[in-house]
Amino acid sequence: MRYNRTMNGDLFDLSHNGETWTETIAEDALILRQYAVAQAPEIIAAIETVTEQSPFRHIQTPGGYTMSAAITCCGDLGWVSGPQGYRYARQDPQTGRDWPEMPAVLREIGQQAAREAGYSEFHPDSCMINRYAPGSKMSLHQDRHEQDLSAPIVSVSLGVPAMFLFGGMQRSDKTVKVPLAHGDVVVWGGVSRLCFHGVLPIKADYHPTLGQDRINITFRVVRKHRTQSI
Ligand code: MD3
Ligand code: FE
């Protein structure tokens, strides 16, 4: 695969040299490498405020399997699984309460990344947080339960690296492997939005921010916004 690389040195942090750069995985799928490194401590603190209210849990797939990645959500809508399958819901079924509010620092990193990729009006109403321990994986799937498929999904990777699989519109299409490391942000829009994707089992590794775990955050527009008329 050909990577298109452009330098962009506008972040500064003592823990890395502040360099961020972009790569394209496919048409309309842009990686902002290291984009969230400087804000990672605040992002992780915000995740803790969410998990104090709605803890990580392992949900059942509609097929009866337990997901190896743990999940929680914040924002207006969260991802739940029940006997009828997956859906978005306003309440956390485990607490019986609304999902925690989306912390501003989370919304802002998602919005800024979307803007970098050319989406000036990205207003996510859902933020899903996945936590992977060593050996956890995510099988090939499409994300197609959101009403507004014209809005991108923004994902933020934190902690130990993952090997991400990116395929095509059919499950059987060939996949490319893309390593995703701490602080990498991906904006999945346009034709990439409905492509099959997954995560290979996480290798035992260590990262100073999260130990052996990997966390992935996704920002989504689930309910279609009323668009301004006239
Ligand atoms: C490509 N999460 O939560 S993030 C998911 O690393 C999910 O936890 C993975 O797939 C993870 O649904 C991958 C990257 C990602 C997220 C959404 C996408 C890639 C995507 C939607 C469409 C195409
Ligand atoms: Fe997905």
Largest sheet: 8 strands, antiparallel
Helix content: 10-25%
Point out poorly predicted stretches: 1-14
What is the strand content? Answer: 25-35%
Give the overall shape, derived from the CA principal axes: globular
Mean pLDDT: 92
N- and C-termini, Cα separation? 44 Å
Radius of gyration: 17 Å
Count every beta strand, where a strand is a DSSP E run of 2 or more residues: 16
Order of helices and strands: EEEHEEEEEHEEEEEEEE
Textual characterization of the structure:
Helix content is 12%, strand content 33%. The chain contains two helices and 16 strands. It has helices spanning 40-53, 104-116, and strands at 6-8, 20-26, 29-33, 70-75, 78-82, 85-89, 91-92, 97-98, 126-132, 138-141, 153-159, 162-166, 176-180, 185-188, 197-199, 214-220. It binds N-(carboxycarbonyl)-S-(naphthalen-2-ylmethyl)-L-cysteine and fe (iii) ion. The site of N-(carboxycarbonyl)-S-(naphthalen-2-ylmethyl)-L-cysteine has 16 residues, from strand 9, strand 11, strand 14, strand 15 and strand 16. Residues 128, 130, 138, 143, 153, 155, 162, 186, 188, 192-193, 195, 197, 199, 216, 218 line the site of N-(carboxycarbonyl)-S-(naphthalen-2-ylmethyl)-L-cysteine.
List keywords for this structure.
4-stranded antiparallel sheet; binds N-(carboxycarbonyl)-S-(naphthalen-2-ylmethyl)-L-cysteine; 2 helices; mainly beta; binds fe (iii) ion; 8-stranded antiparallel sheet; 16 strands; 230 residues; single chain; 33% strand
